[in-house]
């Protein structure tokens, strides 16, 4: 095995028979929509708050009040609890000096009230704050006191390093700014807010951010997301938006936005990275926003109002509120997702299909009345997803048939025709498992690397099989106007070189169906980054997105070969498509596309095996120049990753090759894109 995985080498001769592939540039398909390189971003617990958002303090509006002692971290094996864990405020001084004032709460249900003492400092404190030496930090605190009170903000950095800022609390709520500059690197600084005297001190909210934040977002992660060149970003959910989420609680003064408990992720949401902030983040990273509205506990009026807030002129009711919040010009958001996985029994607000289609139509009509130009995406629930995701499970009938009462997409097509432009579908195939069509349960399987890496592509193909059946029942789909948005998909949530093989094969399957698959949103977009409290880096997954986004062409062309993919080993249906995915170059997968100007033929070759493979290519309809370029994803092992504050283990390697050569020795577990220039 090669010492470095991923970089195929040219070979003048090959001792073993080569797989033969033929690329015919005369047979072309609809161009690849760059939205296939999109992402999905959900608040889900701390996904946004602790990666993109710059706030360093947890529970800054005191949803949980003040505790006597810090809570222990949950067991890391408890994924959801670990995701939701935050540091909470604890008391300085006796607990009986603290209460929660509900009568004069600044935001939310209550504000901490501290009974002061003339002889000892009393207040609150929070630890585990990460600082970078010489970095400036800006904050603000909202205070009120029965009588004028000097309040001390103390930043303890450890090893005796401590700095203080004095601020004044008066009889009216007031917001007071403060600044610190770190004197060393630490992951365990502590901020304390204390006072001495008499009477009561109330704290409404407190914030601390790096001074270089950009509109509340971390400068480092914003820069990396901009580098990722994300084409479209679906947000803010996801399951998060179907419950008690109310977009109106996410606009205006961030200190006055009430924190809410998200029952889906069982996590606190401060509502700081709200509607305006997320749309402005898209402006910062030059990305098309794709907004999802709440059709769970939400209602059509709210859908119309959010469209007016986002897209309405400044003289409309909600447009005026947007202008007052600092964004006079409309955001002009085109893409709107009406509802998340509303077909799923887990979804807040889930209802019978026959009822939901009416609700969807109400939303679509109300939203388009405000802005007729919007592009609407509806929750699809294709039969493959309804079966393997058990959207509406019935004992003894695990497989959902096309056109049945449990086929959600069929119902949307039948009862909501004209009320959407695209149907959404989601896929999260589990590793090393298959779906049993008889029992409706997953069972363990031992897979080769090829079988493992193929799983996401297989789920794309099962959706394609369903779409072909829908076209038979709804012939109007053949005109190509209704699209599919694969707006949530992921596989293997670890960041490893191994996982990039699965992403690349999924890309190839998307590219084969550009006639109707128009968008894909990877879960989560933050998976393109690896992030610590003080640093970030493009992840291994991010690099494979960059490889294709930057270096693969846009006009797919036909690929043939002499080695077809093996026949399915499992019954067709559920997670098994009618035909296994991949080009007729087994075990390699080859995908080809011309660049937009047709001057370069790009050929992506994925070897999802642990052995060297030999490939011989023939180019029909394309005369290549002599010198080509190659772009390979290279890592030292299948477990290679890119970690913060460490040399990257997975990189994109550029090289040149003789483009007249047609025989290649393809190293194990490799992804490489060849650029054949058109001859002059």
Looking at this structure, what is the CATH superfamily of the domain at 9-29 and 557-677? Golgi alpha-mannosidase II
- What structural class results from the helix and strand content? alpha+beta
CATH topology of the domain at 9-29 and 557-677: Immunoglobulin-like
The spatial strand order of the largest sheet comes to 1-33-30-2-27-28-29-34-31-32
Low-pLDDT runs of 5+ residues are 8-14
Largest sheet: 10 strands, mixed
InterPro entries: Alpha-L-AF_C, ASD1_cat, GH, Glyco_hydro_b
Domain Alpha-L-arabinofuranosidase C-terminal: 487-670
Family: Belongs to the glycosyl hydrolase 51 family.
Protein name: non-reducing end alpha-L-arabinofuranosidase
How would you characterize this protein structure?
- By secondary structure, the protein is α+β, with helices and mostly antiparallel strands.
- Among the domains are: 9-29 and 557-677, Golgi alpha-mannosidase II (Immunoglobulin-like, Sandwich), CATH 2.60.40.1180; 86-210, Galactose-binding domain-like (Jelly Rolls).
- The chain starts with 8 loop residues before the first strand and ends with a strand.
- 49% of the residues are buried.
- Mean pLDDT is 95; it is low at 8-14.
- Homohexamer; trimer of dimers.
- InterPro entries: Alpha-L-AF_C, ASD1_cat, GH, Glyco_hydro_b.
- Its EC number is 3.2.1.55.
Topology:
Elements: E1 9-10, E2 19-28, E3 38-40, H1 79-84, E4 90-92, E5 98-101, E6 111-115, E7 122-131, E8 136-145, E9 149-158, E10 161-169, E11 174-181, E12 186-195, E13 200-210, H2 219-228, E14 232-235, E15 260-262, E16 267-269, H3 275-285, E17 288-293, H4 300-311, H5 317-324, E18 335-338, H6 353-370, E19 375-379, H7 383-388, H8 408-415, E20 422-427, E21 433-435, E22 442-444, H9 449-473, E23 483-489, H10 497-511, E24 517-523, E25 529-531, E26 536-538, H11 540-551, E27 555-561, E28 589-594, E29 600-607, E30 613-620, E31 627-635, E32 650-658, E33 663-666, E34 670-677
Parallel strand pairs: 2-30, 3-14, 3-24, 14-17, 17-18, 18-19, 19-20, 20-23, 23-24
Antiparallel strand pairs: 1-33, 2-27, 4-7, 5-6, 6-13, 7-12, 8-11, 8-13, 9-10, 9-12, 15-16, 21-22, 25-26, 27-28, 28-29, 29-34, 30-33, 31-32, 31-34
Helix pairs in contact: 4-5, 4-6, 6-8, 9-10, 10-11
């Amino acid at each position: 095995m090669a010492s470095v995985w991923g970089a195929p080498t040219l070979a003048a001769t090959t001792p073993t028979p080569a797989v033969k592939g033929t690329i015919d540039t005369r047979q072309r398909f609809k161009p690849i929509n760059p939205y296939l390189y999109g992402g999905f971003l959900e608040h889900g617990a701390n996904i946004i708050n602790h990666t993109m958002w710059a706030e360093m303090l947890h529970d800054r509006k005191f949803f949980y009040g003040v505790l006597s002692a810090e809570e222990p971290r949950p067991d890391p094996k408890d994924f959801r609890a670990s995701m939701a864990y935050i540091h909470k405020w604890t008391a300085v001084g006796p607990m009986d000096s603290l209460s929660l004032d509900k009568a004069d709460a600044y935001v939310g249900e209550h504000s901490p009230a501290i009974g002061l003492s003339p002889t000892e400092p009393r207040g609150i404190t929070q630890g585990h704050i990460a600082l970078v030496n010489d970095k400036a930090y800006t904050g603000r605190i909202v205070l009120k006191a029965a009588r004028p009170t000097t309040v001390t903000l103390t930043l303890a950095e450890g090893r005796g390093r401590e700095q203080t800022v004095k601020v004044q609390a008066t009889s009216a709520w007031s917001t007071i700014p403060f600044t610190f500059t770190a004197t060393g690197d630490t992951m365990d600084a502590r901020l304390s807010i204390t006072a001495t005297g008499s009477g009561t001190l109330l704290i409404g909210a407190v914030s601390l951010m790096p001074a270089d934040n950009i509109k509340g977002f971390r400068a480092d992660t914003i820069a990396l997301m901009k580098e990722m060149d994300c084409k479209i970003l679906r947000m803010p959910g996801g399951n998060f938006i179907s419950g008690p989420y109310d977009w109106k609680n996410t606009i205006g003064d961030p200190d006055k936005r009430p924190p809410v408990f998200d029952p889906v992720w069982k996590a606190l949401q401060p509502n700081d990275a709200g509607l305006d902030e997320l749309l402005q983040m898209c402006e910062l990273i030059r990305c098309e926003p794709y907004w999802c509205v709440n059709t769970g506990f939400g209602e059509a009026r709210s859908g119309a109002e959010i469209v007016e807030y986002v897209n309405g002129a400044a003289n409309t009711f909600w447009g005026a509120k947007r202008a007052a919040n600092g964004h006079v010009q409309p955001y002009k958001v085109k893409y709107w997702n009406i509802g998340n996985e509303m077909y799923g029994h887990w979804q807040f607000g889930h209802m019978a299909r026959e009822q939901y289609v009416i609700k969807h139509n109400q939303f679509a009509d109300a939203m388009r009345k405000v802005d007729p130009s919007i592009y609407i995406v509806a929750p699809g629930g294709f039969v493959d997803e309804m079966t393997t995701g058990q959207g509406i499970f019935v004992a003894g009938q695990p497989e959902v048939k096309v056109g049945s009462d449990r086929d959600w997409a069929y119902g949307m097509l039948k009862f909501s025709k004209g009320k959407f432009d695209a149907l959404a579908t989601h896929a999260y195939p589990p590793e090393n498992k298959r779906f049993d069509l008889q029992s409706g349960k997953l069972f363990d399987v031992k897979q080769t690397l090829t079988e493992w890496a193929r799983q996401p592509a297989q789920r794309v193909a099962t959706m394609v099989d369903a779409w072909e059946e829908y076209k038979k029942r709804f012939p109007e789909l053949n005109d190509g106007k209704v699209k599919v948005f694969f707006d949530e998909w992921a596989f293997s949530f670890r960041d490893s070189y191994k996982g990039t093989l699965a992403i690349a094969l999924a890309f190839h399957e998307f590219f084969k169906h550009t006639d109707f698959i128009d968008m894909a949103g990877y879960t989560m977009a933050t998976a393109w980054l690896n992030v610590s409290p003080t640093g970030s880096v493009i992840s291994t997954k991010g690099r494979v997105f960059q490889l294709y986004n930057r270096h693969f062409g846009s006009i797919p062309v036909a690929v043939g070969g002499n080695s077809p993919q093996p026949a399915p080993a499992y019954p067709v249906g559920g997670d098994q498509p009618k035909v296994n995915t991949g080009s007729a170059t087994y075990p390699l997968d080859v995908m080809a596309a011309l660049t937009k100007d047709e001057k370069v033929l790009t050929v992506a070759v994925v070897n999802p095996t642990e052995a060297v493979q030999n490939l011989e290519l023939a180019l029909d309809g394309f005369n290549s120049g002599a010198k080509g370029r190659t772009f390979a994803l290279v890592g030292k092992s299948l477990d290679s990753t890119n970690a913060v504050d460490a040399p990257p283990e997975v990189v994109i390697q550029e090289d040149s090759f003789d483009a007249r050569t047609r025989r290649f020795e393809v190293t194990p577990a490799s992804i490489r894109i060849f650029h054949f220039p058109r001859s002059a």
